[in-house]
Specification:
473 residues, alpha+beta, 61% helix
């Protein structure tokens, strides 16, 4: 059972955690909007689509914000606990500080389990829906948005040029419409003194023009020269189909998934398939090679020599070769001939060997990418435990529980952490390090640091004392 000191310390975490989590979510949301506002504005998207896109992208923000909020709240709670001399009183009562850290560490582990489940099941689906929406938005044409003295040609077959637009009355002045030639109409230029727009529904737009003229270009028949017809009007109405400009959604399930949109189980299944394909490629190459080549696979082209006339005439003196089979041949001519034939055969298989290497390298790269993502689904949520183990002793040692001081320390620790995660993922994708070390390396480093700091505040063990003992001995 928890005593009142442990319960009080847990309560000290709630306020800072919620405040930091909300603040970080707001900052990440603003960053997302700043990066993608140009893709959302000017396309006439329904507000429901924009809200859905934001909600789907909140999932990855939760995965990032939760560990960061844990670190800040731990620094504040333990720093405040130490600043108010509560830690001194606890130590005087004979209570080990580890007993204070244990409940918070247990809550961090529970949060890790929840975030691990969230990262493996909720995040991939949210990423998949957000990716599908982004593709639909990217292929969406801009909305019908006329601007003064600017050509607008997003409606097929028409180009608009408006000299002046009254924003209060939505009236148009000095209107020009350039109509392209199609099977059903001739090329034409329409001028009008003024006009206005009406839209009875989302897919139809009516343009009313006043006091204007038509200039039609009528082609001639049988390669004869065409004619130009001019007419005037007091009022004219043009109707346009805006169905191409309306937003249409595709089914996300019909789109292929990437490593960011798959669960760990699905990625491990893909990795198994890639490993089977690798074995199949190797076996296929070996079978093909064994059917046509009976000589040793390893050879060195640099060891091939041309026979001199003196050596060619000598049928007794043999060339000593590193290959046992060649030494059994009766003369140098047979030796060199066999070796050259073997090299010729191997040269024919060089393209197949290079193709095999390319295929294996590609599959190994894909396996590394998938395994990095599998490890990342647990490594980042596990930071909820790591940051408790690191933040608690640092808070006790600093004896400061204000938000500003905690924010400075957190900024340094989080910057190092996420830079290591990003670089580790890149190195793992390039197969320079293993996916496990790429995703868990910084966690292991912080775990060791947290254990040493915890021992520092809860016992008399000091790293410096270990070095001093070595110096004495």
């Amino acid at each position: 059972m928890l005593n009142h000191v442990q319960i009080d310390l847990l309560k000290k975490h709630i306020g800072p955690f919620l405040f930091c989590f909300t603040t970080l979510m707001f900052v990440l949301l603003m960053q997302f909007l700043i990066l993608h506002v140009d893709k959302l504005v000017g396309k006439g998207l329904p507000m429901s689509i924009i809200i859905e896109l934001i909600l789907n992208n909140l999932a990855y923000m939760v995965v990032l914000a939760a560990p960061m909020a844990v670190l800040v709240s731990t620094l504040i709670a333990f720093g405040r606990f130490s600043e108010w001399n509560e830690l001194t009183a606890v130590r005087a009562a004979g209570i080990n500080p580890i007993k204070l850290i244990t409940p918070v560490l247990a809550v961090g582990f529970i949060l890790f389990l929840f975030m691990g489940y969230f990262s493996n099941y909720v995040l991939p689906e949210s990423n998949h829906k957000a990716r599908s929406l982004f593709i639909d938005i990217r292929t969406q044409k801009p909305a019908f948005d006329l601007k003064p003295s600017t050509f607008y040609n997003d409606i097929d077959g028409y180009t608009f040029l408006i000299k002046e637009i009254d924003s209060e009355t939505d009236s148009l002045y000095d209107v020009r419409v350039f109509q392209d030639e199609t099977d059903n109409r001739n090329r034409a230029i329409i001028n009008a003194e003024s006009g206005w727009l009406e839209s009875p529904n989302d897919v139809t737009l009516s343009l009313f023009l006043l006091n204007g003229s038509w200039l039609r270009f009528i082609p001639g028949k049988d390669n004869t020269s065409g004619t130009i017809e001019r007419s005037t009007f007091k009022k004219h109405r043009m109707t346009f189909d805006l169905s191409d400009l309306s937003f249409s959604r595709s089914n996300p399930e019909q789109r292929s998934r990437t490593d960011r949109t798959m669960s760990a189980q699905a990625m491990l299944a893909v990795v198994d398939s890639l490993n089977i394909e690798k074995e199949s490629e190797i076996e296929k190459f070996k079978d093909n090679l064994s059917q046509n080549v009976s000589l040793p696979f390893h050879y060195e082209p640099a060891r091939v020599f041309e026979l001199s006339e003196e050596t060619a005439q000598d049928t007794v003196k043999l060339y000593t070769s590193e290959f046992v089979v060649l030494n059994e041949l009766p003369n140098p001519t047979a030796q060199m001939s066999s070796l050259n034939r073997a090299i010729s055969v191997m040269d024919r298989y060089r393209p197949e060997l290079e193709s095999l290497k390319t295929n294996l390298d590609w599959r190994n790269s894909r396996i590394s990418e998938f395994m990095s993502e599998v490890h990342k689904k647990l490594s980042i949520p596990f930071a909820c435990v790591i940051f408790v183990l690191v933040g608690a002793p640092i808070g006790m040692l600093t004896r400061r529980g204000n938000l500003g001081f905690a924010a400075i320390i957190s900024s340094v620790l989080l910057t190092i952490y996420f830079l290591a995660v990003i670089q580790g993922e890149k190195l793992a994708d390039r197969m320079m390090i293993s996916p496990f070390m790429g995703m868990w390396g910084i966690n292991i480093f912080y775990l060791i640091m947290g254990i040493l700091l915890t021992l520092h505040v809860s016992s008399s063990i000091r790293i410096t004392n270990l070095f001093r003992r070595n110096e004495k001995t």
